[in-house]
Every structure is written in C-alpha cells, then in structure tokens.
C-alpha cells in the first residue's frame, strides 16, 4: 500500500495581538527594553488582519482597507503592512487586484475554485465536475470521525455522499462529514439547487471559509459499492484521498474521503 501525506500552507493557529513593546524592537525607535523578540512585526500585523477576517469585519469578496489605512490603524510603516498582506495573498486569504486594491478571497474566485480540487484531466483542460448527490443525513459522529473533527463522540454531524462526473463520466466518489452545529441548514434539496463549488456554498451560506487542508493518499481498488456507483468493474485501481479541512483558528470543519478514478485524470500537487 502506498501512503503519501500532503499539507497546504497553514496559518498561525493563535494570531498574536500586535504589541511593539513585546516584539522586542520598535519599528521607529530602535530597541525596546524588554524580552527577546517573539515574532517579526509583520507577522504580528498579519495575525491582526487574520483576526479581522475571522471575526467577519471584512466579508469574502469585500475590499479591505488600503495599506496606508492599515499602517495608520496599527501604527506601523506601510512596508510592514505590505509584507503582511503579501503573505496573506500567498496563502490565498486575500486577492490583490491591479488598480482596485486588496479583497478578501472567496471560493468563487476563478483561481480558488480549483485550489482544493487536485484531479486534473490528462488533456489539461480543467473543468468543474457535475455533482450527483446520493445521500444527505444528520447522524451521530462515529468515534473516529469525531476524533478527526475534534468533536465529542456522539455529537451530530452532517453526512453527505456524492458522485462527481467529468463530461458525464463518473470519476470521483466522495463521503463528507461536517459539524452539525455549523451546517444546520444543509440539505439534499439545497445541494441540488446549488450549481457552484461546494466550498463557495459553505462560505456564503454557513460563514465557513476553508483556509487549509491536510490529506492522506493511498492506492486502492474498487469494491462492489464503489464500482457500482462509479460504473466500473470491481478491482479497478483508484486513489483514496482523505482530507481534513480547516477554517480560521485552525478549526477542523470537514472530513472528506474520496475515491478517484485516474484512467483519464491525474492527481496534481504543486509544491513550493
């Protein structure tokens, strides 16, 4: 069995409040007479901006204050703010638009729609798959699911099962577990009505923005159930991808287990 682990860039789980004295160095006044540096100044500013994103001060798709306005707000230089925003942009939390400013990233962005969809057609022409929702129900979290979502065993989760197809060909079979307290109104009817990326729905209707994910990948073969749903023979090779997705504050909000057919697709992961 082949087992690989991949992880997207993570955010600080507990963003620090900005405090020039505790940073050990005053940006405009030399060394402060306190303990050694805990984190660079721009990292503290990045943490404060992240807190504002997490609190909903700036909603997905909204324009955030300019670098100059943020510099005044935090009493630091514009260059420090720029460096903080550069990192947030690299982590896909904000999007810079030439001549317009910096906006809170949204899963409706063209560049974000495929950020968490790693299965790419061998032809190279990417397209978002069609969904067929098989099942949606509220259940008690099994012990292993509760552990991975950092919930108490027996708490309510939303269980979702679907098949995704490319050009009418079933290619991905997925099972998702979501915290019931967050996704109270998620139903099969709503999922069938919605035609965009699922993460965009989570963001717009449930206030949950996926920040990062970690995955485990294995090589498996189809069993009777997966073969039937994917329309292939039992024993066909596929990739098994288990993902835990996180929102702000490093809170786990999704466990996803997918089976991927790779006869006409490949799994792409860009490392830097």
Low-confidence stretches: 1-36
Give me the count of strands: 13
Largest sheet: 7 strands, antiparallel
Compute the separation of the termini in Å: 26 Å
Report on the structure:
The chain is of the alpha+beta class and 272 residues long. The protein has two domains: 10-104, Arc Repressor Mutant, subunit A; 116-267, 3-Layer(aba) Sandwich (Chorismate lyase), CATH 3.40.1410.10. The protein is 26% helix and 32% strand. It is built from nine helices and 13 strands. The strands form four sheets. It has a seven-stranded antiparallel sheet with strand order 1-10-11-12-9-8-7. It has a two-stranded antiparallel sheet with strand order 2-3. The protein has a two-stranded antiparallel ribbon with strand order 4-5. The longest helix is centred in the first third of the chain and has 15 residues, at 41-55. The two termini are 26 Å apart. Mean pLDDT is 83; it is low at 1-36. InterPro entries: Bact_HTH_transcr_reg, Chorismate_lyase_/UTRA_dom_sf, Tscrpt_reg_HTH_GntR, UTRA, WH-like_DNA-bd_sf, WH_DNA-bd_sf. Residues 7-23 have a biased composition (Polar residues).
Quick structural gist:
Residues 1-36 have low confidence and may be disordered.
List the helices and strands and how they pair.
Elements: E1 3-7, H1 20-23, E2 25-26, E3 30-31, H2 41-55, H3 67-74, H4 78-90, E4 94-97, E5 101-104, H5 110-113, E6 119-121, E7 130-140, H6 143-148, E8 156-166, E9 169-179, H7 188-193, H8 198-206, E10 212-221, H9 224-230, E11 237-247, E12 251-260, E13 265-267
Antiparallel strand pairs: 1-10, 2-3, 4-5, 6-13, 7-8, 8-9, 9-12, 10-11, 11-12
Helix pairs in contact: 2-4, 3-4
